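Input sequence (150 aa), recorded before submission:
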Amino acid sequence: MRIFVDSDACPVKDEVLRVAARHGLAVTLIGNSWMRGLDGPLVDQEVVAEGLDAADDRIVERIEAGDIVVTGDIPLAARCLEKGATGIDHRGKIFDAESIGMASAMRDLMTHLRDSGQIQGGGPKSYGKQDRSRFLDGLERLVQAMRRRR
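Predicted structure, token format:
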């Protein structure tokens, strides 16, 4: 089991490294730029060319069944699920076979409502300590559950 991180806009990279170190799991950070200070014996960083979905495509190319992907990108999570991986977003929401359909439908609905002018502005709410705590708890529980399945 390896943890892949869609690293460019991920606010929980340090938390991922902490949980991974506790469990002795390898982490691969994939993004469009090098991240300073995120080194370690089990940490691999891969910089991909700039471009729409370049990091996503590389994650999908490398991920395997039983791996975990940390991403807020629902289409990326869906692609990883197709390969047998499990996803978690930076707020601790698990993307699995049961939840990805609803997450995709909500994403599409919100996009439609914004595009048609039925809702204005916004975007996601600010990221706080409770979100970070929920992520840590969610990732820890996910790693433990996946270990039990093996």
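Checked by second reader. The chain has one domain: 2-145.
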